[in-house]
């Protein structure tokens, strides 16, 4: 059985000179997050999730519908993987 490999990344906190160190898994993601745990903004059709730097990860509904599963933080280099099924996206569109 292979051991899980993790590393760390230094992230600058938005609006400050402060830096924090966060763990990153072997695939380069800060975390894997269920789509139900993301906040959805109907006006911009964008999903958001808090980033440790103080900003938010973001990915649009259109990006997810085209197969994207990575949300990026616009203020730092961290990425999260979104866990979802096509049915999850249909539910969002129906609301």
Automatic annotation (TrEMBL):
<dbReference type="GO" id="GO:0046872">
    <property type="term" value="F:metal ion binding"/>
</dbReference>
<comment type="pathway">
    <text>Protein modification; peptidyl-diphthamide biosynthesis.</text>
</comment>
<keyword id="KW-0408">Iron</keyword>
<keyword id="KW-0479">Metal-binding</keyword>
<protein>
    <recommendedName>
        <fullName>Diphthamide biosynthesis protein 3</fullName>
    </recommendedName>
</protein>
<comment type="similarity">
    <text>Belongs to the DPH3 family.</text>
</comment>
<dbReference type="GO" id="GO:0017183">
    <property type="term" value="P:protein histidyl modification to diphthamide"/>
</dbReference>
<feature type="domain" description="DPH-type MB">
    <location>
        <begin position="29"/>
        <end position="85"/>
    </location>
</feature>
<dbReference type="Pfam" id="PF05207">
    <property type="entry name" value="Zn_ribbon_CSL"/>
</dbReference>
<dbReference type="InterPro" id="IPR036671">
    <property type="entry name" value="DPH_MB_sf"/>
</dbReference>
<dbReference type="InterPro" id="IPR044248">
    <property type="entry name" value="DPH3/4-like"/>
</dbReference>
<dbReference type="InterPro" id="IPR007872">
    <property type="entry name" value="DPH_MB_dom"/>
</dbReference>
